[in-house]
Design goal:
- The relative contact order is 0.10.
- The protein is of the alpha+beta class and about 325 residues long.
- A hairpin with a 2-residue loop joins strand 7 and strand 8.
- The termini are far apart.
- Helices cover about 30% and strands about 20% of the residues.
- Helix 2 packs antiparallel against helix 3.
């Protein structure tokens, strides 16, 4: 018999925990054990813990699986009464749900992969397999719950092999694009190629990485940025200039996600003046809008103070 796994203990919740409590505990545990957040020497151990966390969440977040698990108890499949085991293997050897679901959190890196997707139930432990394993190929006839609950409930139709997930990127990563390595809950790595200038809300298809060999669709989420405000593919930023530069005009260095750019500031620029830098937003159609704010430096030289005094007198 496979060793019993206490899914409640793994997530750190009580047996009366609500769905919200379980989801919150899962997020915390997933962040704690995500392999990408640990040094190489600890990755193997963290991967196993991460798989346990996902396995626990797979069971406790699903009402029907949780019911099965609670009735099994610490005795494992043998914990059923003899009457329940009459059709026992049918009761816990087929999975009407299709593939398992996961959530993957990486708050420490430039990306965050954190919505539901799927991976095969074969990635779960022997304990999970002894209760739920093989349930994906049930077919049309048998009722997998008939052995223990008084019956009647029919299994849900298998979920689509297509899965969805959310990939959070820093603005600079979305601007420049590139390849990113993601660790899936199964412990396997997936390399994702992000095109330059990808916009918030766009979707990227990963062939064969979804549930039961289906496709995984990544929905791009761009994280808030302290320098830029995002509006579709356009970016907005502010640049502070001195009063004398605003009056005389000249060149100003403006930050962009791809590096600084030099722009020509017209004379007699007023605070709030905006300039448009075409193609400096996300992708070739995105623009960068720069708003100039006039402000004095924190300190002034004696000569600067004298000049300001003369201007004030005039």
């Amino acid at each position: 018999m496979a060793d019993y796994k206490d899914y409640y203990k793994i997530l750190g919740v009580s047996k009366t925990a609500s769905e919200a409590d379980i989801k919150k505990a899962f997020k915390t545990a997933a962040r704690k054990y995500h392999p990408d957040l640990h040094p190489d020497k600890d990755k193997a151990a963290m991967t196993e813990k991460f798989k346990d966390v996902n396995e626990a969440y797979e069971v406790l977040s699903d009402k029907q699986k949780r019911t099965i698990y609670d009735q099994v108890g610490s005795g494992g499949p043998q914990g059923f009464s003899s009457g329940a085991r009459t059709r026992g293997q049918q009761a816990y050897s087929g999975n009407p749900y299709g593939g398992a679901q996961y959530q993957n959190y990486n708050p420490g890196g430039g990306y965050e992969f954190h919505n539901t997707g799927g991976f095969e139930s074969g990635d779960f432990s022997d304990f999970f397999q002894s209760i739920f394993g093989g349930m994906g190929g049930m077919g049309g006839g048998a009722n997998p719950f008939a052995g223990f609950s008084g019956g009647g409930r029919q299994p849900r139709a298998p979920q689509s092999a297509e899965s969805e997930a959310e990939l959070s990127l820093n603005l600079e990563d979305a601007y420049n694009g590139g390849q990113f390595t993601l660790t899936l809950p199964s412990g396997k790595n997936a390399t994702v190629k992000i095109p330059p200038g990808v916009s918030d809300g766009s979707k990227i298809k990963l062939k064969g990485l979804g549930s039961r060999g289906g496709d995984l669709y990544l929905s791009i989420k761009i994280k808030p940025n302290s320098t830029y405000t995002l509006d579709g593919k356009d970016l907005h930023t502010r640049v502070t200039i001195t009063p004398w530069l605003a009056a005389e005009g000249g060149t100003v260095s403006v930050p962009t996600p791809g590096g600084s750019a030099t722009v020509k500031l017209p004379a007699m620029t007023h605070s709030g003046k905006k300039l448009k830098l075409s193609g400096k937003g996300l992708g070739p159609t995105g623009n960068l809008y720069v708003e100039f704010i006039i402000d004095l430096p924190q300190t002034l030289t004696k000569g600067q103070k004298d000049l300001l005094s003369k201007l004030n007198e005039i």
